Amino acid sequence: MPDAPQTPPTSYGFVRLILARPFIDEVERRGIQTGRVIQSLGLAPEDLNDPERFVHAQTVYGLFNALADAAGDPQLGYHVGSRLDFAKWPPFQRAVNSSRTVGEFLTAFIEAVPSEANSVRHELTITSQGACYRIHRLIETGASPQHTEAFGVSHFVRLFQSISGKQWKPDDVMIRTQFTAALPTRVQGVKVERKGEGGLEIHFPTSWLYAAIELSSVLSAAHGRAQKGLGRDVSLISVFQAAARTMLHDLGAGVDDIAKAVGVDSADLKTALHNEGTTAAKEFRRLRLETAKARLGSSNSSISELAGDLGYSDPAHFTRFFRTQTGHSPRAYRKTQRGRK
Predict the structure, then answer these.
(1) Would 323 be classed as within a structural domain?
(2) What's the mean per-residue pLDDT of the chain?
(3) Is residue 148 located within the same domain as residue 181?
(4) pLDDT band at 160 (very low <50, low <70, confident <90, very high)
(5) In total, how many domains does the chain have?
(6) In whole angstroms, what is the distance from residue 106 CA to residue 190 CA?
(7) pLDDT for 276-315, tens place per residue?
(8) Residue 182 falls in which region: left (phi positive, over 0), alpha (psi -120 to 50) or beta
(9) Are residues 37 and 138 in the same domain?
């Protein structure tokens, strides 16, 4: 993950190529080699691991369609989206860290998404009939975006299910998309309706916007994936990380605090961390460093303010921590990052 959100090219239609990585991983998980497919689009396999590589949406849509053909799966985008661990998705992390309600989350999420792609525009509209989250495609391409939109349907429905918590009722939700053939008849119990061109729409009750976000609901989604054999330990750690980001101001926070916040047994969290070769202390340290780097590179917060937000009452202690981890002082690191822009 980049230290700070990067900006896509100024002209419309570009997507961060690393977002295609889940499609590659899913097809290869099925035992299908993807090298030739990637190269047929003028890409090199190593391009898929470069977080700063942007390509035109035409290339991404073409890649997804070619991968679906290679896998013989007309619903590949949906299946990839159903496996996405969105707790690790940068826009989700940034939004959930600053939000108390579903409405606040969606507002922050809309602000964060452009750092990943400028080929679409996200918007939230509210009327007397209800609320609607829309994803507009800003360009038209020769390659069909069917798998991209199916991917969006799959993970956005799961995202809404997680952040709405107890408010969730699939019968109260309607998905409208042009590409119904790339989707099951119902998605997580939600009805899917065909529409003309113009992108994806998710209709839901306005009352959800005022509901408090419950991190335990994110855990429920993670357990659902675990029960399908998608890695319970990884899911638990993703939830641990999402909750830990809200506690970075407390240097004393640990496994027991996270377990209480998300409603799981602390022993399960400790076991999951151990199985993945990490500890709560290491994760808190990594997240503090990650947050510090991001804010030093993208915000004007003072060193003292940043130190306080990360739990250090004495900025000198924060400076020692940062220098130990990076070899640079916070001020020197900020100067270096600003010099690259």
Answers:
(1) yes
(2) 81
(3) yes
(4) confident
(5) 3
(6) 19
(7) 778 889 889 988 988 888 888 877 889 999 999 999 999 9
(8) alpha
(9) no
Least confident range from 108-122, 202-216, 302-316, 324-338: namely 108-122
Using CA atoms, how far apart are residues 58 and 66, in angstroms rounded to an integer?
A: 12
Give SS3 for 164: helix
For 237, the token pair is 């750690």
Between 206 and 97, residue with greater pLDDT: 206
Instruction: Tell me the C-alpha distance between 276 and 238, whole Å.
Output: 11
Q: Which residues, other chains included, contact 183 with Cβ-Cβ below 8 Å and sequence gap of 6+?
A: 75, 78, 150, 153, 154, 175, 177, 192
82 domain-assigned: no
Q: Which of 144, 146, 166, 168 is nearest to 158 (CA)?
A: 168
Strand partners, 131: 126, 204
Residue 193: in which H helix or E strand, if any?
strand 190-194
Structure confidence at residue 163 (pLDDT): 75
pLDDT interval class at 214 (50, 70, 90): low
Q: Residue 15 corresponds to which tokens in the numbers above?
A: 């997507």
| Cβ count within 10 A of residue 240 | 27
Q: Same domain, yes or no, for 70 and 93?
A: no
Domain range holding 26?
A: 14-74
| Residue that finishes a domain, picked among 74, 102, 123 | 74
Cβ neighbors of 165 (< 8 A, separation 6 or more) are 211, 212, 213, 214, 216, 217
